[in-house]
Amino acid sequence: MNIVLSGVKPTGIPTLGNYLGALKNFVKLQNEMTDYEFFIFIADLHAITIPQDPKELRANIRNLAALYLACGLNKERLTLFIQSEVSAHIEMGNVMQSLSYMGELERMTQFKDKMIKNPNGVTAALFTYPALMAADILLYDAKFVPVGDDQKQHLELTRDLANRFNNRFGDTFQVPEILLTKVGARIKDLQDPSKKMSKSDDSQSKGCIYLLDPLNVIKKKIKSAVTDSEAIVRYDVENKPGISNLMTIYSAITNLSFSEIEKKYEGKGYGDFKGDLAEIVAEEIGKVQEKYNQIINSKELDEILNQGRERATQIATRKIHKIYHKLGIGRF
Q1: Is 152 assigned a catalytic role?
Q2: What is the pLDDT of residue 111?
Q3: CA-CA distance, 80 to 304, in Å (whole number)?
Q4: What is the model's pLDDT at position 201?
Q5: Among 175, 159, 141, which Cα is nearest to 316's?
């Protein structure tokens, strides 16, 4: 069984950046890798490493599951489940903590960054986050794990832990590989193109487009995006970051190259360009929202999540029993 596995935290509604940089590419990846089964889980246990509003978290879990399906993933080759509904993740997380060294976890760049941003302290769960991430992956012997730059270090630790266990207790885990795919569009904030568009931003942010924003709001955000005084549609990240970001969005949706976009708007100003882009983005997200509205409150969504939970539990439980036996814990 060949598995590609990915998890996503339900800490907010996905943005246009998440859609173009990851979700849309994930659908493409599934269509290309026809011999692989795709496991996607909603990483709600990872979400609570920082404080969450329970009602919002519960809503985001369901919203995220529906949005993944609305983006076009093939249900026939997909195991979609909620992390906390498969108890083996916690059990395996404890095993991975027993294999991890303090120094390894302290070197994690994300942990160090969060320590700097939160001088009053961070949770122990945030410190051991990489151990649980390793557990998520190794439970299913995932062959490939698509990750962004910010997660590569965590995956390297996962590989180290898999090899460490295999060396101590015999061949047990598939050592996962980073899935090198084409880099998705890296979308920046519409009001501050020096930073990425992030779902952790305030929901009222004018610089961030959320997949569930009303279409008229999306158009308004595009039209009010920061550009420059030159008023020439030209791709130049260093000198024209605002218009370059908008061109990246345009290119990612239409598949037109930057030079083709420049030629199309030669002699035209930013008003024409932004007006067209607003319609293009609204049409793209509108399709996702239409499917989302059909799925979000349907029995089908619960059936898919139930089936995913059962399949994931079957595989994960079998694996954790094997691990316990090799470790010598339990009565069997």
Answers
A1: no
A2: 78
A3: 7
A4: 61
A5: 141
Pick from 63, 48, 51: nearest CA to 12: 63
Rounded CA gap, 320 and 318, in Å?
A: 6
Catalytic residue among 9, 188, 199, 319: 199
pLDDT, averaged in runs of 10, over the chain (332 residues): 91 91 88 93 94 94 96 93 98 96 88 76 88 96 86 90 97 90 75 85 79 97 94 93 96 94 94 96 97 95 97 97 95 74
| Domains of the chain in sequence order | 3-181+298-327 (3.40.50.620), 215-293 (1.10.240.10)
Question: Could you give the CA distance from residue 144 to residue 177 in angstroms, rounded to a whole number?
Answer: 5
Q: Give the active site residue among 143, 196, 223, 264.
A: 196
291 is catalytic: no
What is the predicted pLDDT for the residue at 179? 83
Tell me how far apart the alpha carbons of residues 307 and 280 are, in angstroms, rounded to a whole number. Answer: 36
CA 155 from centre of chain: 14
| Residue 9: active-site member | no
